[in-house]
Amino acid sequence: MAGKNWQAGSKNSLATAVVCLAAGALPSAHARAASDGFLPSSHVTSLDPGMIWEILIGGIVVVSLLGAVAIWAASALRRGQRVRLRRNAFVSSALNRLNQGVVMTDPRGRVIFCNDQFLHIYGLTRADVPPDMTGPELREMRRRKGMLDVSDEEFFKRAAAPEGLVTELPDGRSVLVKYFTLPNGGSVVTHLDCTEQRKLSRKLSSTTQFLESVLDNVPVCVAAKSIEDGRYIFANRAFERFSRFSRDHIVGRRAEEIFSPATAVAIVKADESALQAPEGSFRNEFRVERGSQQRVLASNRVVARNEKGEPEFLIALFDDVTERRSLSRELENTKKFLELVVDNIPVALIVESVRDGKYLLANRSAEAILNRRREDATGLTAADIFNPREAKLIVARDEAAIRKRGLLTEEHPISTKDGLRLFLTRRMTVLDDAGERQYLIKTHEDVTDRRQTESRMAHMTYHDGLTDLPNRAAFLQALAQMIEACADTDEEFAVLCVDLDGLKEINDVFGHAMGDKVLIEVARRLQETARGGVVARLSGDEFGLIIDGKQPEAGRTLAARIAEALAREFLIDGKAVRTGVTTGIAVFPHNGSDAAALLANASAALFRAKQRSRGTVNLFEPEMDQQIRDRRVLHQDLSVAIKNGELSLHYQPQAASGETVATSTVTGFEALARWMHPVRGFVSPADFIPIAEESGLIVEMGEWILREACREAASWPTPLQIAVNLSPVQFMRGDVVSLVHSILLETGLSPGRLELEITEGVLIEDFERGLALLRRLKALGVRISMDDFGSGYSSLSYLQAFPFDKIKIDRAFVINLGKTSKSANIVSAIIDLGHGLEMSIVAEGVETAEQLSFLVQEGCDAVQGYLLGKPAPINQYADLVGRAPDNAMEPARKTG
Question: Which of 376, 339, 384, 375 is nearest to 357 (CA)?
Answer without folding.
Answer: 384
